[in-house]
Amino acid sequence: MDIKDIIKPENKVYGKTPLLKDAILHYCPGCSHGTVHKIIAEIIEEMGIQDRTIGISPVGCSVFAYNYLDIDWQQAAHGRAPALATATKRLMPDKYVFTYQGDGDLASIGTAEIMHACNRGENIVVIFINNAIYGMTGGQMAPTTLLGQVTATTPYGRQADLNGYPLKITELIAQLEGTCYVTRQSVQNPAAVRKTKKAIRKAFENSMMKKGTSFVEVVSTCNSGWKIPPVQANKWMEENMFPFYPLGDMKDR
Amino acid sequence: MAEKILMKGNEAIAYAAINCGCDGYFGYPITPQSEVMETLMKEKPWETTGMVVLQAESETSSINMVYGGACCGKKVMTSSSSPGISLMCEGISYLAGAELPCLVVNVMRGGPGLGTIQPSQGDYFQTTKGGGHGDYRNIVLAPASAQDMYDFVDLGFELAFKYRNPAIILGDGVIGQMMEKVELRPAKARRTDEEIKKLCASWATIGKTADRKANTITSLALEADVQERFNIKLQKKYAEIEANEVRYSTYKTEDAEHLIVAFGCMSRICENVVELAREQGIKLGLLRPITLFPYPKAAIDALVPQLKSIMSVELNAGQMIEDIRLISNGRVPVNFYGRQGGMVPSPEEIFEAFIKTIK
Hints:
A: seven-stranded mixed β-sheet; two-stranded antiparallel ribbon; 10 helices; 9 strands; globular; B: alpha/beta; 2 domains; seven-stranded mixed β-sheet; five-stranded mixed β-sheet
């Protein structure tokens, strides 16, 4: 059989969504960001909402999300994405508005903004990438860094008496009356990717139903920050992150 | 005849916002300007014009809500007083860096720190020289009456959109709290989606359509040469603002041998100082900068040859005087009189200080 006989429309099993631009990703190989970007791009394409979706990128590695998804983007000051999203959604209620934030952005410097946006029940989607470390600045301790975890600013491992405890912010968010859907997912294998895609799709759909805030945490890897290769990083995440940050829906109403 | 209503300067801000088609107000309570949001909440403009009014969790959040709204090509604003404005300065720098139009109202109180709730003009440096980080400028309007507070909302939005730059109304506790007659202006409707598209589709985040590239609003440029090119472009814009938007008023300067320069509430008080001087045969005039950036450099410069002295009168330790000295450049003595910490001088007190400087 010739290659020309194989490359036919009817044999196509996968295609890159045009919502994902042909820009070269600046993310490290093995990083979860690329996968989550692809999921969001596919959902926007499948829902046919490119002209009605506004993304808000954080400060951190994913500040450049606007280089990859072919939609209108706002780039927020560190931690402030939920404030931008609040005004954007209230001023343009017919738009799908989502923030994309890392753990430092959302759970440290932006704690006030995320808690209050969720508590007001803003009809927005929050995508929260938790890799337990500051990636862009070179691997310092994040609010979600595990006890004992070595980072550039916890070179002997995070100690509770010195550095405080890892923050389960998603559990806090789930307590707030303003949230309608709070879930924790991951993207380390095809099954997990499918579950995350389903969760983010639901979050996007919720945002037009005036039900309140939908919050999707994605427990992620940062092999550069963790200083272990991608496959090993997935294993480390499953063995260390999942017991402390258990996957699944915390709230769905 | 247009309707005139007795109201506080702060209330004038709120009524003007609704009247001129403002799309959204985001604020956090702080004395002496809380009446702005209180009036808006009482008026419920979301039921009439569709204007959004939201009490945020902090000034930091307020200014970032303004950033988000401005990204959408909407006419959005916030108001606060000095300590709150300090918190907003990060956001104002981002707004300037992202070239976003917005209106910020500062009803100044005395500082530093938590300071006092009484009137001050201590934020002149902060507002005209930056406040936040980086090389940027705000368009700064200094109201001297409740009517100015009302009129500068529409003017502020107009200038902010013309130059895609933050505009700041730099009022003070006197102007915010004082009740005066305010003449209402003809109402402007809020811009429709179509109008916003026509005006802002080249940059605003209003949804990427097939006929254009995606819009990204950011103030980030990692490459030094890109950042420098952008900064030069910003400076060109500021030069254009300086060439086109200077506003000031004069009082009895034609034959003046001495000049007082004062802005905001102090310019009102200093009109009486001019009268006190004229009664004694002293040819004193007054120049009131209405825009503090751009500053009326040429107007002051043109008066210098006829002057024997200039006095800057401010509710601070002497901030605007530095700009006047740069203009005078040693050609004429530039003196200062100011009160601080919320103290407001009487015309007689200023006149006494003025007489000492010319004897």
